[in-house]
Write a sequence for this structure.
């Protein structure tokens, strides 16, 4: 039963070709559109964040379900663990931002400071920014590595000690992630508009992370099932993942609505300017994000058997992934690019480039360990699982 | 006077096995009474999926349209008021009530549909088959028509499945 | 608003005038005529107010004139001429209460006066009046007034009363009687008194003012040989120096001085110069709070400073120096500045010392201020009492030389420092007669009580300044069986002419000849009555000459007074209660003191430094001189080693409302700055404070700048907020027709609080009583926020009237569940009282906290029986007659707020429509704007680009309160500019 | 349905089906103990005291409360939000935990749902009684009237009306549908004729037919499906009462999820307070085991930490925002005149639940009981801090003032406590405290005899 996933040459070529298309598109855009450095750095930040969120979801999924004693996810554990292996790469990519700080963040220029930015320069200053980034990544990478090692050592011996140790690690990660998920979103995304603030922003980015993670998880399962693996994953597991995608996209809409409605309602200029720029500047994009992230998954996954059919679920997951990408795009572009932002070749190109690299890293890591973990006390429950 | 065979069981596994056998023998089971919802019994009995979710969805949709429509009508058409400098047709302010009314309609529609379809309700005169059904007994009710041979055949099967007790009952 | 004045006299002219009246005069009269033919049942829009007019009391709604027969209040079967239900009539009249004077218009509805407004034809009132004048309309309907003449507390009819008085006067023929009155500056009344004193030579007439100006009067007499007080014209002065003279609050004629003082301070595009005002005083007075420079001094140092200033001026002018202690740097600099502003400065002092006033005259003379900023041609006549006369009278009464006392409109037992001595004397008098409207400490001791009319029920005339006269006419028939003082005098002195005729005869003899406009006296008299005021030309006297006085002796008298470092007490008058004569007026008692924001009480003011030393906090109780126990209020700005207490409180006999409110302090009002001992005692006193926090916490609520910064950049102090361009998600509302708004010039607002009482009278705002104000349940629709800034002992003070800002993005409208508050298409935030269910979320969500809630049933408008909370008897049927029928009474549990006098806006629009024209700028005035002495509040239409309001709204000094939270208020403020010497 | 051996058994003492029915029906059939009567008299007298205070308020006016022109809401609305918060645990347990298929919910969902309904009854009283003119409260409903007036659909208070009434009705339906089979069980067990007739009537003629069960199962699942977002929406709308204002300290976008987490946090605390006592008194220790208590404590630690993080977020963003009013509002909370309320809130809500990280404490009944009371005190003070300290010092310093409740307000709160506990005490005597049918479905898989009890 401990078959490994073999990363066939054909799949490697597919990933490579995606990256190449990406590079081609970027080259084309440099020829025709010759984007300024702001746009380039914006795309780097955008895709860094997007794929960082997917990898963070990996660790989060394992940790959350370990604490909640849930049993159904155990047979699928290897996939989120593989997702989390991308963390070191995204750390490296994020530290690349050192060179692009002046393009991305107004507060990094000292001359642009007005009283409000001056007031928060104790938090928004370059050295502290990178110290925090370093702390986040050491915490995430460290804990995800330990969780993966724990799961690997659990394969070798069925000593109950590993289960308890795993739970403690999971609790540690959850505590660390609860705080850092908010601060990371303030540092990297909210500070693009230094004057704007919303207390819900941290949790809104967190839920965006969770939904895109579930969607990526479903897509990888669909990819593996299409290649003949994961036969122990039945319709019940898919049904639960479908329910996650359905439920959490509703929760994403709930957070989005209340953040927008409360700011719309009190109509205080320092808060409404954020949505005024986006609603009047990018009306189509503003509503497409809502449709792709809520309306479509809500109607598509409402019926019971829609959540049990792998093809339909994969299609909805892909749509949600695109929706979440656009959501982060809309969070960043008005602040960095102002009115001139539009989705051009370089955006698509850099997305493909990152996608190719991400898939290659994740699936390569997946093939290192056997697909099915052993000696987990809940493994049996995961097989005989019925909703 | 119609007479029924009611076979009593004390455990749901025996009940499921008995039903499976009876179904294979094409014996018409009138009803099965259990103290709690037995998992997987409706698959064995081949019962159709209940259409309550669709009732809920339709009622919910009606609720959404009704609530949103009424608020828009009241605030834009019938008596538009200048309130807080906000436009008359302010969608974000209509959504909370729309959601609440949707949930209300869906819940009430499903409950009434359930009670109506199951003929349950205040003052429903359903015949209580046995006091212990709601305690710990599982009962299969099979129609016992006249010819004994069919009757004995059924009795044999039930005994073979160690039915706890078999009774012959008459109901008006 | 077109003043629709009617003289009450039109009713008794000949019949032919009557016919002319009926011919339709423009569409207003046509519309109104439908009422006049008496057929249509009167359709006043307030059903229950007609019920009030038909009230069983024998009140005639026919205007009083002696010839008119008394008519029962009958429900308009045959309606009197002037009264058209629903339409207000205005009668020009005069307000006189002891030395307070204002030329006013009485607004009457259905025959009852309900509001007092200033008469804008009078150069003294200029259309404005003070808080006390606004509140005086309520004391007409005071339930505790005398209702009929009394002899030894037993009611009698007037005839019996007159007989016994005449008999008593005959019997007292040989022993001396004193007639004690406040200053009488009404020519006809003086003539009546002369008749009376001629008829009874043994009666000697003495005048007594509670706040006496005898020092100034005697100084005038000595220096220039003129009598009356100098007429100060502050608008002519670039530099104003005041030595403890609260001329904006209570000194001499404040409402006129507020107007002239603020004229020079309202900066606009054209005027960017401003007068500079320096104040030397011990307690923080209303004038002190508006001064550009304020120096806290001890009362005893006052005269020395004046002497030093005089000495410095004399030195600078090259005359020989006097041996006066070396002046401080401030005085030296002041002298230099005064000489720079020669003949454009004014130096005033409230000192009661004759020598000090002489020096003040000398200083003004040296600075050639006379007949430029100080005019002696028409002196002010409202203070003529000399202290020595009163002291002499008290000694004579005590020694028994004077056997009888007639008291008119004064309360010496309460208000005079030697009150106890007078009380003992009166008890042993053989003849004592009091002529006063309401019972007070003095009248309750008197044998005979002849109740006087309220000024709204009396005929009179006044000469406030030489050659400027004004008439007083009644707006209602006397409510009770009372008779005017002058009518009584004429009756007792055998002149059986009626006082109204007496005035007409006097005017015919003296004033009618001095004018040439009118040929026959009748039309002259009617015209003057309609306008209310009459001005004769003043013949300019000879050049002024300063009498030779022994200046050196005067300077010595001042300098050899040795300084003490003991705590000195000063007794002062409050802007609200004054000398206590109106203590029974609930509006005044509940009006927060402009400086301390405390109502319903007086207290001992102490400086923060001293309080720390004595370990005192606001609300602690102290014992003064071992006997008087009263609470302490820490008053930033109070001079160190000085304390001050307000007089006018602690009255024992004055009716239900004012009884035992506060602590009696007039017995300490000896002028030699008595030093006192303070000693902290147990106990805490809860003050009824409407504002408990006094600093702006660094927020840009009131924006200030100095004059030189303003001259360099008009947007000084008003340009530091981060601006978010087009940040709105939905577009801002625009108003097609009108967009009503207010602009308040913080440089003109002196914080006198007249607007709060005018608003209370206009909009029937209920009175809640002291206990409720302590629980912050007060109901005033407009409050004046007073903020202290800078060092605690030398604070900068700033006033800001805050009413509903009528925001176009109103946070209150969003959150009301039943849409009880919404926005009109003309930019007003409307509050629908009968729709409100009282969740109070609008009150919580208003950033300006201007929404008031009816916590209890204050107005008896609630359907639940006997849960009335009315400590001041405002819901008695008599007091309810002051209610304005155009404004609904709010029930318990309902939110209410400033409606920007929507009833006046509608009336203005109706009048414009009837005259077939659009509403002009200035047609409509809100009640607060109308009464503001300094014209700080301006109402107008923000859509009308030509209006004054638009000019102010687009001026550089303009800003909105809390504009950063985008409520888009329609009320805007103009920055306060101080003129500190840099 | 396979259950891994290391999972702790949820029903102890390997019960047969009839033993289950017997154990759970025992409190209804037997004579109520002296403690029950004593409890009922105390809570009923508290209720009548509260009713008297309400009558006094309607008669005299809101002035008899301690409110004033600056602080328009005080104890009244604090209690309203507190009770609505407590009401959310019941539906959270029966709806959201059903969707997440946490089996341990079966033995506590019935009493939790009952608690929800009683809490919502208490909560619903306050919007009525705090109004200036409660007799005109019907203005809040959009009924057609001669003046052609509708209500203000923008107002969060109006959303509250719809939200609370919907929530009460849906919880009532959800609770009663689950109760029908158990009433059927009571109908068949009880002896006296009247009781049998009444239970018969109330059981809607339940026969236990498999078709009915199938529909009942599907109905419960879908009702749970829509009740879950309802919980979220109701308390978000209650939080919108404050978040839609512009008062610094009220207007923050984190309020909706933060209030929901706070509601579940205080709701579970109340469930623990009640169940730790009822399981002892009605000796249902076998059904509400230490595993249940520990699971609930885990939920408390989770939601407590969310609430704690929300406090830190609010504090940080108020500093980060640079808005002087927000900064002062939060500085004033911690150091202003109401610092003590803030201190109680912080200790009870954030610090004390962190003690639950220790497994020994999670399973200690006395500690749990005391902690649950502390949490509810902490949550009450959280609402008090939010409402009163933000109102008493906001934009213009001239309108700053203080607030302290009067006996009338305190009396009304005690009255609602009385109403809540008397309803709960009556509920114990009339309906089975635990869902008999649902326990029977679960006893086979997570009952004791099946699983070996490994060392944990």
């Amino acid at each position: 039963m401990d078959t490994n996933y073999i990363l066939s040459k054909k799949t490697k070529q597919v990933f490579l070709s995606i990256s190449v298309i990406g590079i081609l598109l970027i080259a084309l855009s440099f020829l025709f559109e010759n984007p300024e450095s702001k746009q380039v750095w914006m795309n780097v930040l955008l895709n860094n964040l997007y794929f960082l969120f997917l990898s963070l979801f990996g660790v989060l999924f394992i940790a959350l379900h370990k604490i909640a004693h849930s049993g159904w996810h155990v047979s699928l554990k290897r996939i989120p663990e593989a997702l989390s292996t991308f963390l070191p790469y995204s750390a490296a990519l994020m530290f690349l931002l050192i060179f692009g700080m002046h393009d991305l963040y107004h507060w990094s220029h000292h001359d642009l400071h007005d009283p409000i930015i001056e007031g928060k320069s104790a938090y928004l200053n370059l050295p502290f920014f990178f110290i925090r980034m370093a702390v986040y990544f050491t915490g995430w990478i460290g804990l995800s590595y330990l969780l993966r090692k724990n799961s690997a050592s659990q394969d070798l011996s069925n000593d109950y000690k590993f289960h308890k140790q795993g739970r403690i690690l999971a609790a540690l990660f959850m505590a660390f992630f609860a705080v850092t998920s908010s601060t990371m979103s303030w540092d990297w995304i909210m500070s693009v508009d230094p004057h704007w603030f919303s207390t819900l922003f941290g949790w809104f980015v967190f839920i965006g992370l969770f939904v895109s993670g579930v969607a990526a998880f479903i897509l990888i399962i669909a990819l593996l099932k299409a290649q003949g693996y994961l036969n122990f994953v039945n319709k019940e597991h898919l049904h639960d993942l479908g329910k996650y995608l359905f439920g959490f996209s509703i929760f994403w809409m709930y957070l989005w609505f209340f953040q927008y409605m409360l700011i719309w309602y009190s109509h205080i200029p320092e808060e409404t300017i954020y949505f005024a720029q986006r609603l009047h500047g990018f009306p189509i994009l503003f509503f497409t994000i809502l449709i792709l992230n809520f309306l479509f998954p809500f109607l598509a996954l409402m019926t019971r058997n829609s959540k049990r059919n792998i093809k339909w679920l994969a299609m909805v997951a892909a749509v949600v992934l695109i929706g979440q990408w656009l959501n982060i795009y809309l969070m960043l572009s008005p602040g960095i690019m102002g009115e001139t932002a539009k989705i051009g070749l370089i955006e698509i190109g850099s997305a493909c480039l990152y996608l190719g690299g991400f898939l290659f890293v994740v699936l390569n890591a997946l093939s290192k360990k056997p697909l099915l973990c052993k000696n987990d006390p809940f493994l049996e429950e995961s097989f005989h699982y019925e909703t | 006077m119609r007479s029924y065979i009611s076979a009593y069981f004390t455990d749901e596994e025996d009940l499921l096995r008995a039903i499976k056998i009876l179904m294979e023998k094409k014996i018409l089971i009138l009803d099965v009474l259990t103290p709690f919802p037995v998992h997987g019994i409706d698959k064995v009995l081949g019962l159709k999926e209940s259409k309550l979710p669709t009732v809920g969805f339709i009622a919910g949709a009606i609720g959404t349209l009704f609530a949103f429509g009424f608020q828009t009508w009241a605030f834009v058409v019938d008596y538009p008021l200048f309130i807080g400098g906000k436009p008359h047709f302010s969608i974000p302010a209509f959504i909370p009530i729309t959601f609440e009314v949707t949930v209300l309609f869906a819940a009430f529609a499903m409950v009434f549909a359930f009670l109506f379809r199951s003929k349950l309700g205040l003052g429903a005169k359903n015949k209580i088959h046995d006091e212990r059904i709601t305690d710990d007994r599982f009962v299969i009710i099979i129609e016992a028509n006249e010819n004994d041979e069919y009757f004995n055949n059924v009795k044999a099967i039930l005994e073979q499945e160690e039915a706890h007790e078999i009774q012959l009952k008459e109901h008006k | 608003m077109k003043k629709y004045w009617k003289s009450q006299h039109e009713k008794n002219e000949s019949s032919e005038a009557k016919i002319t009246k009926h011919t339709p005069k423009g569409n207003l009269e046509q519309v109104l005529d439908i009422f006049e033919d008496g057929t249509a049942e009167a359709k006043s829009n307030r059903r229950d107010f007609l019920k009030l007019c038909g009230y069983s009391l024998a009140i005639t709604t026919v205007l009083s004139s002696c010839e008119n027969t008394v008519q029962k209040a009958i429900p308009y079967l045959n309606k009197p001429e002037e009264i058209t239900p629903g339409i207000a009539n205005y009668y020009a009249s005069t307000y006189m209460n002891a030395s307070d004077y204002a030329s006013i218009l009485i607004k009457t509805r259905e025959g009852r006066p309900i509001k007092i407004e200033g008469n804008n034809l009078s150069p003294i009132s200029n259309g404005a009046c003070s808080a006390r004048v606004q509140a005086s309309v309520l004391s007409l309907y005071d339930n505790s007034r005398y209702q009929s003449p009394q002899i030894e507390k037993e009611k009698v009819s007037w005839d019996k009363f007159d007989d016994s008085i005449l008999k008593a006067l005959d019997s007292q023929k040989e022993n001396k009687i004193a007639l004690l009155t406040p200053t009488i500056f009404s020519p006809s009344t003086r003539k009546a008194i002369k008749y009376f004193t001629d008829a009874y030579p043994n009666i000697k007439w003495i005048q007594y003012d509670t706040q006496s100006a005898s020092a100034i009067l005697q100084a005038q007499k000595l220096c220039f040989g003129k009598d009356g007080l100098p007429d100060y014209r502050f608008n002519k002065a670039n530099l104003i120096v005041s030595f403890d003279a609260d001329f904006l609050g209570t000194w001499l004629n404040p409402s006129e001085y507020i107007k002239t003082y603020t004229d020079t301070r309202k900066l606009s595009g054209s005027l960017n110069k401003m007068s500079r005002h320096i104040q030397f005083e011990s307690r923080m007075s209303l004038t002190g709070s508006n001064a550009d420079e304020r120096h806290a001094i001890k009362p005893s140092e006052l005269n020395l400073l004046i002497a030093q200033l005089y000495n410095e001026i004399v030195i600078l002018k090259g005359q020989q120096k006097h041996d006066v202690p070396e002046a401080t740097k401030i005085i030296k600099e002041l002298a230099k500045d005064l000489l720079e502003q020669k003949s454009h400065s004014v130096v005033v002092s409230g000192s009661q010392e004759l020598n000090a006033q002489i020096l003040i005259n000398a200083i003004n003379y040296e600075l050639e201020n006379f007949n430029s900023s100080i005019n002696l041609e028409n002196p002010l006549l409202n203070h003529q009492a000399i202290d020595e006369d009163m002291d002499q009278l008290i000694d004579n009464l005590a020694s028994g030389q004077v056997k009888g006392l007639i008291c008119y409109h004064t309360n010496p037992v309460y208000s005079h420092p030697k009150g106890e001595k007078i009380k003992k004397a009166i008890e042993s008098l053989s003849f004592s007669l009091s002529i006063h409207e309401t019972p007070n400490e003095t009248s309750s001791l008197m044998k005979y009580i002849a109740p006087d009319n309220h000024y709204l029920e009396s005929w009179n005339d006044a000469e406030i300044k030489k050659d400027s006269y004004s008439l007083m006419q009644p707006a209602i028939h006397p409510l009770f069986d009372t008779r005017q003082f002058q009518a009584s005098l004429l009756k007792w002195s055998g002149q059986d002419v009626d006082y109204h005729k007496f005035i007409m005869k006097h005017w015919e003899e003296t004033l009618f000849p001095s004018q040439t406009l009118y040929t026959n006296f009748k039309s002259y008299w009617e015209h003057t009555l309609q306008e209310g005021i009459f001005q004769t030309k003043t013949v300019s006297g000879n050049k002024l000459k300063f009498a030779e006085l022994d200046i050196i002796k005067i300077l010595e008298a001042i300098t050899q007074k040795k300084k003490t470092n003991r705590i000195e007490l000063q007794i002062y008058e409050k802007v609200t209660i004054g000398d206590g004569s109106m203590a029974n007026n609930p509006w005044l008692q509940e009006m927060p003191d402009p400086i301390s924001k405390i109502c319903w009480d007086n207290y001992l003011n102490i400086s923060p430094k001293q309080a720390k030393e004595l370990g005192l906090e606001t609300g602690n109780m102290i014992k003064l001189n071992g006997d008087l126990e009263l609470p302490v209020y820490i008053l930033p700005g109070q001079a160190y080693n000085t304390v001050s207490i307000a007089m006018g409180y602690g009255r024992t006999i004055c009716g239900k409302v004012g009884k035992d409110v506060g602590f009696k302090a007039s017995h300490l009002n000896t002028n030699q700055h008595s030093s006192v001992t303070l000693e902290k005692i147990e106990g805490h006193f809860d003050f009824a404070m409407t504002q408990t926090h006094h600093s702006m916490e660094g927020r840009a609520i009131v924006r200030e700048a100095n004059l030189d910064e303003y001259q360099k950049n008009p947007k000084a102090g008003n340009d530091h907020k981060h601006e978010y361009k087009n940040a709105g998600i939905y577009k801002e509302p625009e108003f097609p027709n009108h967009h009503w708004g207010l602009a308040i010039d913080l440089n003109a607002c002196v914080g006198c609080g007249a607007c709060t009482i005018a608003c209370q009278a206009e909009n029937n705002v209920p009175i809640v009583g002291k206990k409720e104000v302590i629980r912050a349940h007060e109901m005033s629709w407009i409050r004046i926020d007073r903020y202290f800034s800078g060092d605690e002992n030398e604070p900068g003070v700033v006033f800001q009237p805050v009413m509903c800002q009528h925001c176009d993005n109103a946070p209150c409208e969003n959150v009301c569940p039943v849409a009880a508050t919404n926005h009109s298409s003309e930019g007003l935030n409307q509050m629908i009282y009968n729709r409100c269910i009282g969740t109070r979320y609008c009150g919580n969500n208003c950033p300006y906290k201007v929404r008031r809630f009816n916590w209890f049933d204050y107005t008896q408008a609630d359907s639940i029986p006997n849960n009335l909370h009315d400590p001041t008897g405002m819901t008695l049927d008599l007091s309810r007659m002051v209610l304005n029928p155009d404004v609904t009474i709010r029930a318990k549990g309902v939110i209410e707020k400033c409606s920007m006098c929507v009833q006046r806006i509608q009336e203005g629009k109706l009048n414009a429509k009837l005259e077939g024209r659009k509403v002009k700028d200035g047609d409509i005035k809100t009640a607060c704007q109308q009464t503001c002495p300094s014209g700080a509040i301006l109402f107008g239409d923000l859509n009308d680009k030509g209006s004054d309001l638009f000019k102010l709204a687009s001026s550089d000094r303009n800003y909105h309160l809390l504009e950063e939270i985008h409520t888009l208020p329609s009320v805007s403020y103009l920055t306060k500019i101080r003129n500190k010497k840099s | 349905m396979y259950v891994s051996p290391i999972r702790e058994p949820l029903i102890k003492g390997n019960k047969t089906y009839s033993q289950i029915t017997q154990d759970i029906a025992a409190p209804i059939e037997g004579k109520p103990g002296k403690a029950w009567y004593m409890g009922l008299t105390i809570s009923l007298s508290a209720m009548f005291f509260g009713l008297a205070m309400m009558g006094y308020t309607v008669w005299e006016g809101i002035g008899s409360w301690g409110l004033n022109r600056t602080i328009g809401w005080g104890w009244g609305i604090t209690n309203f939000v507190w009770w609505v918060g407590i009401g959310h645990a019941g539906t959270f347990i029966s709806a959201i935990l059903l969707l997440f298929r946490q089996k341990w919910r079966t033995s506590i969902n019935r009493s939790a749902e009952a608690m929800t309904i009683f809490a919502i009854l208490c909560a619903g009283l306050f919007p009525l009684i705090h109004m200036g003119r409660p007799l005109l409260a019907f203005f809040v409903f959009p009924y057609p009237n001669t003046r052609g007036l509708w209500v203000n659909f923008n107002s969060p208070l109006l959303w509250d009306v719809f939200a609370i009434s919907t929530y009460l009705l849906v919880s009532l339906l959800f609770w009663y549908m689950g109760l029908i089979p158990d009433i059927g069980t009571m109908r068949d067990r009880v002896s006296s004729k009247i009781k049998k007739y009444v239970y018969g009537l109330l059981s809607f003629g339940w026969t236990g037919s498999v078709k009915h069960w199938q529909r009942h199962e599907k109905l419960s699942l879908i009702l749970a499906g829509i009740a879950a977002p309802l919980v979220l929406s109701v308390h978000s709308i209650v939080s919108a009462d404050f978040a839609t204002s512009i008062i610094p300290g009220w207007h923050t976008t984190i309020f909706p999820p933060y209030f929901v987490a706070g509601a579940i946090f205080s709701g579970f605390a109340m469930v623990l307070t009640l169940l730790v006592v009822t399981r002892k008194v009605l000796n249902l220790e076998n059904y509400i085991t230490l595993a249940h208590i520990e699971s609930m404590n885990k939920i408390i630690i989770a939601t407590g930490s969310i609430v704690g993080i929300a406090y830190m977020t609010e504090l940080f963003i108020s500093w980060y925002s640079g808005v002087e009013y927000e900064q002062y509002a939060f500085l004033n909370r911690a150091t202003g005149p109401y610092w003590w309320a803030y201190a109680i809130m912080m200790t009870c809500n954030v610090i004390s639940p962190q003690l639950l990280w220790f497994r020994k404490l999670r399973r200690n009944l006395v500690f749990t009981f005391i902690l649950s009371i502390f949490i509810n005190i902490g949550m009450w003070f959280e609402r008090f801090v939010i409402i009163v300290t933000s109102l008493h010092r906001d934009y213009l310093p001239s309108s700053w003032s203080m607030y302290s409740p009067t006996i009338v307000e305190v009396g009304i709160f005690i009255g609602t406590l009385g109403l809540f506990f008397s309803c709960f005490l009556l509920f114990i005597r009339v309906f089975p405290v635990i869902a008999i049918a649902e326990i029977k479905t679960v006893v086979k898989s997570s009952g004791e005899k099946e699983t070996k009890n490994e060392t944990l």
Remarks:
- The mean pLDDT of chain B is 87.
- The two ends of chain B are 5 Å apart (CA to CA).
- The helical segments of chain B are 12-24, 41-45, 52-78, 91-117, 148-160.
- Chain B has two domains: 2-35+136-171, 52-117.
